[in-house]
Amino acid sequence: MEMGYSHLFEMSTFLEAFGTLEGWGFILSLIIIEGLLSADNALVLAAIVNKLPEKQRRKALLYGLWGAYVFRIIAIGVGIYLVQIAWVKYIGAAYLLWIAIKHFWDKARGSGGDGEDGEEDSGLQKLLAKTGLSLFVRTIITVEMMDIAFSIDSILAAFAISPNPWILIAGGLLGILMMRLVATVILKLMDKVPELENAAFVLIFIIGVKMILSTAKIYEMSHEMFFIILVAVFAITFLINRIRGRKNAVQ
């Protein structure tokens, strides 16, 4: 089902998102994926604003949050049109497959890609330092740029899940808010169940495959099948965690 941005103002589109269990299921799926992919990013942003005086830290994060919201809405508005072009869908799907494969490749090589965000932040901060802007303004710009970089993966995944603009906006905005508010809780859960990180990238891979098959008109995955796969991935993840926990306890 393809949708234009004008459908945002149609009552049927709104009800499809908020008046059905299916719509809320999609929104919840987007929130979960956003949270799992971005929990560590929230701590990166916290480290950036930590350079400011205490009174300015909350302000910088608040401005960054609103900037992330504005960017997400603009990206969804533009993306609704772009994802109707087949080659754009293929590029988006290929990117999702690439980040999933890269995650497991880095894990297999024993480098998890740690430190990349910190290096990007450092380079950006050095560049901004030459502009003569105040530390507060430079920090807000850095937070905004990092927010945009962090959003690309989840925006592409969202478009592969549903074309409904209300679902995309609600899932994305609630996901950003949740990521900022409960990042520490999510990270603690991921410390207890480290396999959750892998589960997120397994889902990203599945979503990329889903987008390719749908665009090529080979197979259109039903909403029910997607939710079954989502539940199965998390069920298997927790099962693997319990099995590993018992093995470690025996040793």
TrEMBL record:
Membrane-spanning segments: 24-48, 60-81, 166-187, 199-219, 225-243
Membrane topology designation: Multi-pass membrane protein
Subcellular location: Membrane
InterPro entries: CHP03716_TM_YkoY (IPR022493), Integral_membrane_TerC (IPR005496)
Entry keywords, A to Z: Membrane, Transmembrane, Transmembrane helix
Domain of life according to the entry: Bacteria
Keyword Chloroplast annotated: no
Signal peptide positions (record): none
Pfam family, any one: TerC
Annotated family: Belongs to the TerC family.
NCBIfam families: R_switched_YkoY (TIGR03716)
Protein name as it appears in the record: Membrane protein YceF
